[in-house]
């Protein structure tokens, strides 16, 4: 009787464990290598600066004086992809997107050189007095998204940010590799990125539109394309939180 009771207890323990233990398919490569573009080794930095309301105009002026000098300096392996103020979303906010050609070594080279740059040191000190808070993320670009290249304006930009459930990045990539085809007709797709350092399991999609009504029309048109509704249906459960920012580019932004 004791042996039978022990066997039943072992089976029950095994059954209970099966409810909570998730089997994971073995992978031979990191998610970043499976999802990112292989033909480039670019690393992106996305910066969010929350500016004191009374300082936003001075902040923009200072950035427009200093940032192009870094962007245009041939000895710095980096490029300013875009710089904006948030119009709808978190107010009095500046958003900057940088590309580092050559990945982490390029990032380290730029940071090392900027520490020796007296003008940039003064810029950071002056800028710091204008900020309430700031954060940044290091990103890679999805292999199936457009390369973010300069474009003429005027445009408004939407940055849609998704906090995914941990472990779902591959699923997201698989669905959006198909979904992006539905959003290319009006040249609105600018770039798609996923985080490597900072807040993890973050995805950012960057879109450009002529105005808010054009945005509305383009997004509504997608629902009339067979297959778009199914892809939305399967990706929504992967999301924990999402946020939309409508942004206006500064004069120095390559994305106008």
From TrEMBL:
Main location group: mitochondrion
Cross-referenced InterPro entries: Dimeric_a/b-barrel, NIPSNAP, NipSnap_domain
The organism's place on the tree of life at top rank: Eukaryota
All residue ranges annotated as the NIPSNAP domain in the record: 157-254
Coiled coil regions, renumbered to chain: none
Keyword list, A-Z: Autophagy, Mitochondrion, Transit peptide
One Gene Ontology term, aspect cellular component: mitochondrial matrix
Gene3D superfamilies linked to this entry: 3.30.70.100
Subcellular location as annotated: Mitochondrion matrix
PANTHER family per record: NIPSNAP-RELATED, PROTEIN NIPSNAP HOMOLOG 2
Family, similarity comment: Belongs to the NipSnap family.
Name of the molecule in the record: NIPS2 protein
